[in-house]
Structures are given as C-alpha cells and as structure tokens.
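Usage

Read records sequentially. Each one opens with the input sequence:
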Amino acid sequence: MKVSIYDSCLLFIINGPHDFSIIGMQIDNTFGFATSRFSKREQDELYRKKFYTKDKNILSPEQLIKFNRGRIKFSRDNITFI
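and closes with the structure output:
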C-alpha cells in the first residue's frame, strides 16, 4: 500500500485498472473503495490467515451506507452524501 502525498490517512494500492483499492482512515471509521476482484482476493487472504473482520457493506442503488452520521447514496449518475 502507498500513502497519499495529500493525506497520510488515505492509502491506496493499484494492481491494474480492474484491481485496486483506496482506503480512508479516521479515528473511529474506515471507508474503502475497491474493485470486486481486489475485494475478493483481500477477503480470501484474510480468511486464509484466520484474520476475521466485519462484513463489508456494498454500496448499490438499493443499499445506502451509513457513514459519519450521514448516508452515502449511489444513483445511476452519481454518489452523494446525505
């Protein structure tokens, strides 16, 4: 993983255009954006190492995500924080 030069709490890894992840860390929250390929490989590796984590919330038009006392909403054209 590499650290953003703009924010030391913003981490990213890029293995290709369909295999990457961006993670934002805060004191009490972590927010990540990852391709399904990266997410699957990450989950498999965590399971193999017996490192168990909370289930991931996957943003979709049908599924809002609660974050920092707000909600993140995905629609066909954009993503908004409400």
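Summary fields computed downstream for this record:
- The chain has two domains: 1-51, 55-82.
- The mean pLDDT is 86.
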